[in-house]
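We close this part of the discussion by returning to an individual protein. Part of our work consisted of pairing the sequence of a single chain with a tokenised description of its backbone. No coordinates are needed to read the tokens, only the vocabulary itself. The amino acid sequence and the backbone structure tokens for this protein are reproduced below:
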Amino acid sequence: MEYIYVEWKHSFIDEPIILISEIDENRFETRKIEIYRNGKVGFAYQDVEVMNTRLSIESVPSIEEIATEVDFIPKTILKEEFEKFWSDKVVPLL
């Protein structure tokens, strides 16, 4: 698994500003967290979708590819960091 954290620089009210994904060996998302400017949290895993957050049906580009988009600031994070986000942001909503 790979874990990525992407900051999305934009001024859209209804779009997340942070995207955090768990990605499998084929580069497909298995879990995803989206954090909005107002603090709301969307998430998705398996057949669960909250606040319009969905797992991508396409493979996720590499960090290098994502970084070519000027509005995105991506970085790889550790599994433990992802799990901390998941337990802090998602588990309380389940």
Observations:
- The chain has a mean pLDDT of 95.
- The first strand starts at residue 2 and ends at 8.
- The two ends are 23 Å apart (CA to CA).
- The CA atoms of residues 5 and 40 lie 17 Å apart.
